Amino acid sequence: MSNTDKTDLRVIKTKKAIRDAFAELLSEKDIHKITIKDIADTAMINRKTFYNYYAGVYAVVDEIENEIIMAFNEALRDVDFKLLLREPYEIFKKLTSIINSDFNFYSHLMKMDNNMSLISKIILALEFNVKKSISEQISINKSTLDLVFDYAVAGMITVYQKWFNSSRTQSIEEISKSLSIIIFSGVNGLLDNEV
């Protein structure tokens, strides 16, 4: 392993520690009350190290937003939405895979009751891209699409938040499977599956 590889690995680890510390703090306090000292202490680094990577707290926020949006957009990029209507769980498998790739981070993110504006901003960016993709593949009235999205996203966020804040007796895969059925087949679809 070269010195460059070691340096790159250290940079990745340090930035991940900062990002995870920030997400953990978000689950405990309002975003406006989080200081660089809070982040540095939680990440077990010094403030100088923090400033090597970020200009301030909101630089961390911007990077987190961009990374999440890129990850979800990448997962949704090649989705065939016509096929998705017949096999809705496929999209949820991709979303679950993203969450599982950094479970601790997403767990903290979904626990942040005081900071829903960050989640809302991310959701709006993702919604825009998904709606655009759906509109390109399926002829659907814009107001109907908006209604479906508002309903589905509000329900999904609530279910995932409650799951992350619970004792998690079901796996995230089971929750995602149930959500895919409810969103695409309604409550009766889920009940039919259970009976």
Walk me through this protein's architecture.
By secondary structure, the chain is mainly alpha-helical. 79% of the residues lie in helices and 0% in strands. The chain has 10 helices and no strands. The longest helix is centred in the first third of the chain and has 24 residues, at 3-26. It starts with a helix and ends with a helix.
Structure, briefly:
This protein is mainly α and 195 residues long.
Uncertain stretches: none
Distance between the termini: 56 Å
Count of beta strands: 0
For the sheet with most strands, the description reads: none
Instruction: Report mean pLDDT, rounded to a whole number.
Output: 82
Number of helices: 10
Overall geometry comes to elongated
Decide which structural class fits the backbone: mainly alpha
Strand content: under 5%
Helix content: over 70%
SSE string, helices as H and strands as E: HHHHHHHHHH
Structural topology:
Elements: H1 3-26, H2 36-43, H3 47-53, H4 57-76, H5 81-86, H6 89-101, H7 103-110, H8 116-137, H9 142-164, H10 172-194
List keywords for this structure.
0% strand; 195 residues; mainly alpha; 10 helices
